[in-house]
Design a protein that fits this description.
This protein has 701 residues and is an alpha/beta fold. It contains 25 helices and 18 strands. Strand 2, helix 7 and strand 3 form a beta-alpha-beta unit.
Length: 701
C-alpha cells in the first residue's frame, strides 16, 4: 500500500507536467520528491511533535500553507518547470495537503482526543527512505531536535543492581550528584521504616558527606548533592522520614520505633562522625567563621527539591478526562534518573542511570523484575540542560541555578576527546529524550511513535510493560504487524502486576482482549503481509535472580512453542547449551541468594520492565544463526549467576561493568564473524534500538 500511494503521487505530477522538451521524467520525479520533503518538514513533523499534547486549533491549515509556500518557492525559482505548468503542479500539492487534513480529521474523530492524533510518516516517506539505521536515526533526530552521538559506553543494569549503582554514584561524585526520583520510601508495606531508604541514607549519603568533609582541606570543595522528587510521590511514599534528615544532617535527628533502635543508633554514630569530620576541617571551619553557620549547614547537606507542588488554582477540563474541573495535582513527574559530574568540559566524565526503579524495599529481592541502563559519554550531557529546565519551571531564576548545573562552552578539542573514547571502546550510539510534565513537550512519545510507524517490514518489536491502557499505542503496534513487523506486546498477569488496582488492570484486560481477538481472527491477514502479532502474558512464580529456574523455563518454552524458533533462529548448539545449563549449575554448586525475607511468602515477581527492543530482519537473520552465540550466552548466564552469588548478606554486587569483561572473550569472535558475513547493504540495514526509561503504555505517560 505504501508503494502504491507513492506511485500515485508520482503519477499525479507526471500527468500535470506531461512530456515536452522542457519537462522530462527527472523533472516530475523531482517535483514529487520536493513535495514529499515539504510535507514532511512543514506539516508532518511539526504536527507529530505535538503527540500527547492537546491542540487548541487542531487543523493542518496553517502548516499546509507554510508547506505550500516552501514548495512554491522551489517551483518558481529552482525547478526549471515552465510557467504554464505552475497551476497544475500547485493543484496536486494542495490536494496532498487536503488529503492529510482529511486523514487528521478522521483520526481525531476516531480517538475523540487531539492528543492521540498522529499523521503517518509514510505520507511523505517511501519504504526506501527508512530501511537503514542511519536513515531512521536521521528521521528521529529531525523529529525531536536532538542528535544521536557516538563515544558512549552503555551497560545493562538488572533489577536491584540499580540500588548498588546509585550508592556508588553518590560515593564517587566529586562535583555534584542528582537523584531524580519518584520514590524514596520512608516506610515499607508493613508500616515499618524502609530498609533500603535507611541504607541509602546512611551508607550512601551520610558516608559520602563524611568522606568529602574529610577531603575538603585537600580538594577545597564539597559535592552538591540534590534530590528532585515530585510532591505527590514524596507525600504518598512518606519520604520525609529520611529526606528531612538529609536536609540537615548536622542538626536533625531521626526517631524510629523502639524495635529499630539499632538503626537509630547507627545513624547517630554516622552523624557524630560527620560532625567530627566537619569540626576537624580547617577549611570548613574558616568558611563558617567568615560566612556563618548557615553557610556551613548549606554546604554539608543534601538539597531536597520537592517539585510540582499541588496548586488548586490551576483547574481545567483539559487536565483529565471526565473530570470537569480537575486540578494540576494529577500532573506528575515520573522520571527516575541518577547522574553525577557530567560536564561539557570532558565527555568521559560522570555517569547516568535511566531506570524504572525507586529507592525502597519492594524494588529489591526475588520479586521485582526491572531494567535500567547505565551510560556515560556525550549522550548524557543533555541531562544538565533538562535539570535546569525543571528548576526553571519550579520558579528558579537563572541566578538561582546551582553553579554545577550551569552551561559551559565545550573546549575546542571536545570532538577529539570523543574520538579518543571511541578508540577505547566507547562506541555506542545513543540519544536521550524526555516527556516533560504537564502540557510541555513529549519527545519520548514522538521517538517511540516513529519506531512503531517506520521500522521496516520483518522487524521484531518486543514491548513488555506493566501498565497497558492506551489503545493508541496498541493500534500503532497492530498497524506495524500489518506492515510485516513481528510484534510482541507483553503484560503482567494480575498476580505479577506491580500496580494491580482495579482501574488499571481492567483497562489492561480490555486492551489485551482486543489484542487476542486480532491475533485470533486476523492472524492470517497479518501473516500474508509477512507480519506476526503474538500476545505475551508474564505469569511467573520463580525468583527473578534464580538462574537455574530461568534456564529451565527457557528450555521448556522453546520445546512447547515451536514458533519461537522462527523468531529467535539461533544455531542448534545454543539450544543444546541452554538445555544443559541446569546440570552445569547443579554440578558447580550454584545456589541463588535471596535478600528479601519479606518476599518469602509470595515469590511471584512483579513485571516492571519499561525496556523496548527493536531489530530489523536483516539484523536478526544474519546475527542469530551464528554458532558463536553458544559461548557468549553461556558466559553471560554464568556471569549473571556469579554476580548474584557474590552478593553477600549486605546486598553488594560487583560493578555491572565487570560483566562485559567476563563476556568480552567470547563476544569479540561473535561480532567479528557477524561483520565478516555482511554485505555493505546488509550492514546498513542491520537496525537495532533499545529504549529504557520510566514511561508506560498508558495515557498518563
Amino acid at each position: 500500500m505504501v508503494d502504491f500511494y507513492h506511485r500515485e503521487i508520482d503519477k499525479a505530477f507526471s500527468l500535470v507536467l506531461g512530456e515536452s522538451g522542457l519537462v522530462t521524467n527527472d523533472t516530475w520525479m523531482m517535483a514529487a520528491q520536493v513535495a514529499r520533503e515539504a510535507l514532511l518538514e512543514e506539516v508532518i513533523l511539526p504536527y507529530n511533535r505535538l503527540l500527547g499534547q492537546r491542540k487548541k486549533h487542531d487543523k493542518l491549515n496553517g502548516l499546509g500553507s507554510r508547506a505550500e509556500q516552501v514548495f512554491r518557492v522551489w517551483l518558481y525559482l529552482d525547478s526549471g518547470i515552465p510557467k504554464e505548468k505552475y497551476e497544475g503542479v500547485m493543484y496536486v500539492f494542495r490536494h496532498l495537503v487536503e488529503f492529510m487534513e482529511d486523514s487528521r480529521k478522521e483520526s481525531r474523530d476516531t480517538w475523540e482526543d487531539s492528543r492521540l492524533v498522529w499523521i503517518p510518516m509514510h505520507y511523505a516517506l517511501r519504504l526506501e527512505d527508512h530501511d537503514t539505521q542511519d536513515e531512521i536515526d536521521g528521521i528521529i533526530e529531525r523529529a525531536v531536535g536532538r542528535h544521536f552521538s557516538t563515544g558512549n559506553d552503555v551497560h545493562y543494569v538488572i533489577n536491584e543492581q540499580f540500588q548498588i549503582e546509585l550508592a556508588r554514584m553518590i560515593l564517587k561524585a566529586e562535583d555534584y550528584h542528582i537523584l531524580w526520583i519518584h520514590d524514596y520510601a520512608g516506610y515499607n508495606g508493613k508500616g515499618d521504616p524502609d530498609r533500603i531508604g535507611y541504607r541509602m541514607t546512611r551508607e550512601a549519603y551520610l558516608r559520602a558527606l563524611i568522606e568529602r568533609a574529610k577531603l575538603y582541606d585537600t580538594t577545597g570543595k564539597m559535592p552538591v548533592y540534590m534530590i528532585f522528587i515530585d510532591q505527590y510521590y514524596f507525600e504518598a511514599n512518606k519520604g520525609r522520614l529520611w529526606l528531612e534528615f538529609l536536609e540537615d544532617p548536622l542538626g536533625r535527628s531521626v526517631e524510629l520505633p523502639d524495635e529499630f533502635d539499632e538503626w537509630e543508633e547507627a545513624i547517630r554514630e554516622s552523624q557524630e562522625e560527620l560532625r567530627d569530620a566537619v569540626a576537624a576541617s580547617r577549611g570548613l571551619q574558616e568558611g563558617a567563621r567568615r560566612y556563618g553557620q548557615d553557610w556551613l549547614k548549606n554546604k554539608v547537606k543534601v538539597h531536597i527539591n520537592i517539585t510540582n507542588p499541588a496548586d488548586y488554582s490551576f483547574r481545567s477540563a483539559y487536565i483529565a478526562d471526565y473530570l470537569i474541573i480537575a486540578t494540576d495535582n494529577v500532573m506528575r513527574d515520573h522520571r527516575k534518573i541518577s547522574f553525577y559530574d557530567i560536564t561539557e568540559l570532558d565527555p568521559g566524565r560522570g555517569e547516568a542511570i535511566y531506570t524504572g526503579t525507586g529507592v525502597g524495599e519492594h524494588y529489591v529481592g526475588p520479586g521485582w523484575d526491572d531494567r535500567a541502563v547505565l551510560a556515560r559519554g556525550p549522550a548524557v550531557l543533555d541531562l544538565k540542560r533538562t535539570a535546569r529546565h525543571l528548576l526553571h519551571t519550579q520558579g528558579f531564576k537563572e541566578d538561582d541555578i546551582p553553579p554545577v548545573l550551569r552551561a559551559h562552552d565545550k573546549p575546542a578539542n571536545y570532538d577529539e576527546m570523543v574520538e579518543e573514547l571511541v578508540a577505547q571502546g566507547w562506541d555506542t550510539s545513543a540519544m536521550q529524550v524526555h516527556n516533560l510534565t504537564g502540557f510541555d513537550q513529549k519527545n519520548v512519545n514522538v521517538a517511540r511513535a516513529i519506531l512503531y510507524d517506520i521500522m521496516p517490514g520483518g522487524s521484531l518489536m518486543y514491548i513488555p510493560d506493566s501498565l497497558w491502557n492506551n489503545p493508541f499505542w496498541g493500534a500503532m503496534l497492530v498497524g506495524a504487524s500489518f506492515r510485516g513487523c513481528w510484534v510482541f506486546p507483553i503484560a503482567p498477569s494480575l498476580a505479577n502486576a506491580p500496580s494491580a488496582g482495579l482501574p488499571q488492570m481492567s483497562r489492561s484486560n480490555e486492551l489485551f482482549k482486543r489484542f487476542l481477538a486480532i491475533q485470533d481472527r486476523m492472524g492470517a491477514e497479518i501473516e500474508a503481509a509477512g507480519g506476526m502479532f503474538r500476545v505475551g502474558i508474564y505469569n511467573l512464580d520463580i525468583d527473578v535472580e534464580d538462574q537455574i529456574a530461568r534456564a529451565r523455563l527457557i528450555d521448556r518454552n522453546l520445546r512447547k512453542n515451536d514458533w519461537l524458533l522462527k523468531v529467535f533462529p539461533f544455531h542448534p548448539s545454543v539450544f543444546e547449551m541452554m538445555a544443559d545449563l541446569e546440570e552445569e549449575f547443579v554440578a558447580s554448586g550454584y545456589k541463588p541468594v535471596h535478600l528479601s525475607d519479606e518476599a518469602e511468602g509470595d515469590r511471584r515477581p512483579k513485571l516492571h520492565l519499561k525496556t523496548q527492543f527493536f531489530a530489523s530482519r536483516e539484523a536478526l537473520s544474519t546475527l542469530l544463526p551464528l554458532e558463536e552465540w553458544r559461548d557468549l550466552l553461556r558466559d553471560y548466564v554464568l556471569a549473571r549467576a556469579d554476580e548474584i552469588e557474590k552478593r553477600g548478606p549486605d546486598g553488594r554486587y560487583p560493578d555491572v561493568k565487570a560483566r562485559r569483561e567476563k563476556t568480552s572473550e567470547s563476544g569479540k569472535p561473535l561480532l567479528d564473524a557477524w561483520e565478516a558475513s555482511l554485505t555493505d547493504m546488509e550492514r546498513k540495514q542491520a537496525i537495532f534500538y533499545l529504549t529504557a526509561g520510566s514511561m508506560n503504555q498508558n495515557y498518563r505517560s
